[in-house]
Amino acid sequence: MAATGSGPYQAIVERNVFGLKPPPAPVAEAPPPAPPLKITLTGITTILGNKRALMSVAVPNKPPETYMLTEGQRQGEIEVLSIDERGGAVLVKNHGIEQTLDFKTDGAKAQPPPVIPGMIPPPNRPANPMPLPLPGTPQQPGGVPQLPQPNANANPGLPSRQLPMPMRSLRVPAGSEATPAIPPAPPQPDQ
Known about the structure:
Blueprint: H1 10-15, E1 38-45, E2 52-58, E3 65-70, E4 74-75, E5 78-84, E6 89-94, E7 97-102, H2 103-106
Antiparallel strand pairs: 1-2, 2-3, 4-5, 5-6, 6-7
């Protein structure tokens, strides 16, 4: 027996004794926005005539992708808005979210060298070592050793304006034309 809408209980449904409301229409949920990708700033260059940002983008389940983009250029959902080469910062739009990348927080981190079993680690050295002067070497301002100057009195037989110069012969491959890099020295007067 099928319900036809007219039955002994239809009067109860029409009276709506319990105050029931029809179910709301289903609302199509928008998918959640994709989380922004992790961007690592690897460099900023102006060598090609315009400012370019070099970055590495971590894509899920894939190897990192590298981009070199100018201002206003986009690659997928990543767009470079501005580049500050002096400040070392890049403003990007990452999946609709603006981010400022800089080398301090978003730059590539230096990886320590791998440890090989049995290898002795190198000693800690300063980044820019200054040469140590030899004992008795005169010093210039700033602690830079002074190079010895030619002594005109070292050979009293030669006039002070003419210092002896060692001569070297240059070898030139056969068939090539070359001009000598050092002009020949004038002949020394006999004493």
